[in-house]
Write a structure and sequence with these properties.
This protein is mainly α and about 80 residues long. The protein contains three helices and no strands.
């Protein structure tokens, strides 16, 4: 006979899965956002070099989403 307590989900394992999903999905979302922004920034800089700073800034903005995902993962791992 199987012990029913052995079939219960380990909460630490589920927290680790949630932390991994938080970082992974945030990274995928930022990558998809940077795809279009990066292409437009390179096109704008090819026409006029004055757009380098604006293009760089717009390319960096989606990376803040990954930082938020990392913060959520760290909160999940160390607070709960």
């Amino acid at each position: 006979m199987v012990d029913p307590s052995a079939l219960a989900a380990d909460p630490k394992g589920l927290i680790a899965v949630g932390a991994g999903l938080a970082v992974g999905l945030a990274g995928i979302g930022a990558g998809l956002g940077e795809q279009a922004i990066g292409a437009a920034a390179v096109g704008a800089m090819a026409e006029d070099e004055k757009f380098f700073g604006k293009g760089l800034l717009m390319t960096v903005i989606p990376e803040s989403i990954v930082i938020f995902g990392l913060v959520v993962a760290l909160i999940l791992l160390f607070v709960f």
